């Protein structure tokens, strides 16, 4: 019940990114459109990655206080996340004029540089909407109300796709595979909207993010939750919940930011150098990598949804003082993720050529298309190798985060990613240049395998079982009475029902 809407939410993000890339790949002309969208988007996400890791702890604190029936604290953590989001967004404004300088240091071709910079600057301008929406999403995840987030995400994604169809192609209209493509072109013509290309995809994403924020914000400030949790007056949450999020959230923020840096370096630098090492067009290797990553998103984003659900359930069980029940739910979530991602791994191997061909425009020269499919197929095989280990890393990290164990996983992630992705990628380019861009992908696969094993070992060690985030202090005023042991035990027989917000 908790995981299904969360998985739908995460999958919808992936489908949106997949459709975005597919629509961008159909822009007329032979340009590095998919690579530009991927490179530009990763800069925007990198810029907010630390804040996303910090506000992800809203889920943990809300779910643990829900389990402890200290409901008066929940809204304060949501507002703390919103305040952190606002502060971080002010910093983002400084990055917008620096985007051309940053991409200019990567040695990309002129057209790719122009397009990726344009996309990144538009995305950075709208990242406050994304951060605020994720803060409220984590609140509703923690309250075991993921359907609110699911409805908001699906609505935002539908609006995003519609805006893309209008803004990317303008009066010419989207390709024939888009429903009502002729009507969309006529509508753009009547409004005088030109074809914005890659920039149109960025604007469409920002519009979709606005919709994704408005829906949970309206419910959060609405009369029902305000009456039950005091969501409106909690805007003066004080420094305590902000300090709590920063104190336990910085390792997650560091982990997320570091992974974004390392994966960005892989996609934007190592893959390009790999293409140069074998004498190919670097943009072709970059494009093949982004196509492969789109399919990886279809695999791991549902697992991320399971991880968020596991984090919320583990948090609630820990608030109930039931680490045994928390462990049971974590293993159940892990089993589902391993089966799903294992099936994806098999699909990556069996249908690798067909999957890459989906993104090959019919206007692409045959020689280039054949090379792109060949590179992309090897990327899919490399991805298949680490799918099960990725399931372990994703779900177990969510379980540890729900319990409040964040420092050790964060440090291990940083160290292993730099050793495997960055150092290992450069080592393979140097000692096995004939592998081209596949060398860095092998290094990335090794990182996922190592991380999955290390996080599983940490979970099995069991130190997370003794962490207490809720305590009995008077945190934000008087708390709701604690449940009696008998009541907690009765609620924990099998799958506990979410505690009613109204008590």
Concise overview:
The protein is an all-alpha fold and 503 residues long. The chain contains 19 helices and no strands.
Structural overview:
- With 503 residues, the chain is mainly alpha-helical.
- 76% of the residues lie in helices and 0% in strands.
- It has 19 helices and no strands.
- α1 runs antiparallel to α2, α8 runs antiparallel to α10 and α13 packs antiparallel against α14.
- It starts with a helix and ends in a 12-residue tail after the last helix.
- The C terminus is likely disordered.
Give the number of helices: 19
Global shape? globular
Low-confidence stretches: 474-503
Using only CA atoms, what is the Rg? 23 Å
Order of helices and strands: HHHHHHHHHHHHHHHHHHH
Overall mean pLDDT stands at 87
Helix/strand class = mainly alpha
**Which percent range fits the helix content?**
over 70%
Distance between the termini: 20 Å
Q: Largest beta sheet, briefly?
A: none
Proportion of β residues? under 5%
Please tally the β strands and state the result: 0
Which helices and strands occur, and which strands form pairs?
Layout: H1 3-25, H2 33-55, H3 57-67, H4 74-92, H5 99-104, H6 110-125, H7 127-142, H8 146-169, H9 181-191, H10 198-220, H11 223-229, H12 239-277, H13 282-319, H14 323-350, H15 352-357, H16 366-403, H17 407-431, H18 438-461, H19 485-491
Helix pairs in contact: 1-2, 1-8, 1-13, 2-4, 2-6, 2-7, 2-12, 3-4, 3-7, 3-13, 4-7, 4-12, 6-10, 7-8, 7-10, 8-9, 8-10, 12-13, 12-17, 12-18, 13-14, 13-16, 14-16, 16-18, 17-18
